[in-house]
Write a structure and sequence with these properties.
Elements (H helix, E strand, L loop, with lengths): L2 E6 L4 E5 L4 H10 L7 E4 L5 H12 L3 E5 L4 E5 L7 E2 L1 H4 L9 H8 L1 E5 L12 H8 L4 E5 L2 E5 L8 E3 L5 H11 L5 E5 L5 H13 L2 E6 L2 E5 L7 E4 L4 H12 L4 E5 L7 H9 L3 E4 L3 E5 L9 E2 L11 H9 L5 E4 L9 H7 L4 E4 L2 E4 L9 E3 L3 H12 L3 E6 L2 H4 L5 H7 L3 E5 L1
The structure holds ligand EPZ.
Ligand EPZ binds next to helix 1, helix 5, helix 6 and helix 12.
Length: about 425
């Protein structure tokens, strides 16, 4: 089982180029099921979850050709595809559920394993299923599989999501592209990755128009055209690296990004005292000796991203006073706390609130990754800790960060992968 070994305290200085977005790649890859035409994607991150999604598509009959060193690939589907998504792949990557919408839209039937929970929460799919029902889908859940069909194809409908859900918004956005007539989706998630999915679908010939802050209109079409599309930058990797820059008076230039998408994170980092200089496609961030405390709560975009909560917790351990973080999206997303405590952090969790006492001098320790973003927070703490830290179960990290240790080594981190 691979581990990461990190020697701190690392002084980070230099440039980090951000990879393509995992959370834009996954829905865009699922959306390719809508089309029989050749699709070329560039700036695709080489991370485990993307590999799993590609395997899922190939298991249904997609022909995927990877051009490894350029993070590019081409996808070609044909008329008769399998419409089953098996448990073995779905259980390792919950986002696989977003193949349900395109399969139903294109083939009128699908047998998709329910994704199963993960360490941060139960990950239900009720919002996806209830919304698809409004479009004429009938389904039954038997032995952990969703057996769904839409005999006369999907019918455009007016649907209001009861709760903001990234995955459900993506599933319905994709499905509506091939539905008969017009669909209006309201109370949508508006993460930048969803806007990237919209741009991709429209470049294929879909007719999607955002008509309100959280409202979108889709007019169903019958066919799509060949397309070449560049995936947006990874907003959460960029946020993770910005937080790294704010710790220990580091000085990082984060490149290949769109700073305006990170407005919330930039404002928070400025509030805690970091020096932030924005340029067209890069941000320079310098950490300050004095880090101020701040109270935060996670919320759907454009609020503070739940995917950066664990990373921010590490920065606030270094603040001069107490901070409180409220996790309002997932029910169990403070997994990194017990591991950070092993590194001398002083954090107390009560329900969905974590109180971070601040003034922490991190000490190297043996710790264990529990989920993707918690593992990133352990790397940040290890870089700021005196001595050696060993992080086990780093397969969690590999799900969503491309070449993380290579990028950090380049700016001065003493970090390596060991068995
Ligand atoms: C997406 O997950 C992201 N994953 C997550 O990133 C991210 O944390 C999350 O959105 C919130 O921003 C991808 O984009 C691949 P949701 P998703 O549906 O779509 C509840 C990472 O680290 N809910 O917006 O699963 C759900 O339980 C990952 O990259 C229902 O109740 O998130 C949660 O409490 C982790 N019923 C809340 O809504 C449903 O049918 C938000 O979930 C669906 C969701």
């Amino acid at each position: 089982m691979k581990k990461l070994e990190v020697f701190g305290v690392s002084k980070l200085k230099g440039q980090i180029k951000i990879s393509g977005s995992k959370n834009a790649s996954l829905p865009i890859l699922a959306a390719t099921l809508l089309s029989e035409k050749k699709i070329s994607l560039t700036n695709v991150p080489q991370v485990k979850d993307v590999e799993t999604m590609i395997k899922l598509l190939e298991s249904m009959g997609s022909k995927v050709k990877k051009i490894r060193n350029e993070n590019s690939l081409t996808i070609q589907n044909n008329k008769n595809m399998k419409t089953k998504a098996g448990y073995n792949l779905m259980s390792t990557m919950r986002a696989g559920i977003i193949v349900l919408g395109p399969l139903l839209a294109r083939f009128g039937k699908a047998k998709v394993s329910t994704p199963g929970g993960c360490s941060i929460g139960v990950r239900p799919i009720d919002i996806h299923l209830e919304a698809l029902k409004c479009m004429g889908v009938q389904y039954k859940i038997i032995d952990g599989y969703v057996h769904a069909n839409a005999k006369s194809g999907l019918i455009g409908a007016k649907i209001r999501f009861p709760k903001i859900s990234v995955g459900a918004t993506e599933n319905l956005l994709i499905a509506s592209c091939l539905a008969k007539g017009q669909t209006i989706l309201s109370n949508c998630a508006i993460e930048p990755e969803i806007k990237d999915l919209t741009k991709f679908l429209n470049s294929m010939g879909a007719k999607i128009t955002w008509i309100g802050k959280r409202q979108v209109k889709i007019v169903g079409v019958k066919k799509f055209k060949e397309v070449k599309y560049k995936i947006m930058f990874d907003r959460i990797e960029a946020g993770t690296m910005l937080i790294a820059g704010a710790i220990n008076q580091n000085n990082l230039k984060i490149k290949a990004i769109e700073p305006n998408i990170l407005k919330t994170e930039i404002n928070i980092l400025k509030k805690v005292g970091a020096k932030v200089i924005k340029k067209k496609n890069e941000i320079n961030i310098q950490g300050r000796v004095k880090i101020k405390n701040i109270n935060l709560k996670t919320s759907p975009f454009p609020g503070f991203a739940t995917d950066l909560q664990a990373q921010m917790m590490v920065l606030l351990c270094k603040a001069n006073k107490k901070s409180v973080i409220k996790e309002d999206i997932f029910e169990n997303r403070f997994q990194s706390v017990s591991e950070l405590r092993r590194m001398n952090a002083n954090i107390n969790v009560k329900g969905n609130k974590a109180t971070i006492e601040g003034n922490t001098i991190f000490k190297g320790a043996q710790v264990m990754a529990t989920d993707l973003r918690a593992s990133a927070s352990l790397v940040l703490a290890a870089l700021s800790a005196k001595g050696k830290t060993t992080i086990s179960r780093i397969y969690h990290l590999d799900r969503g960060y491309e070449d993380l240790e290579k990028k950090l080594k380049k700016v001065g981190a003493k970090i390596r992968r060991i068995n």
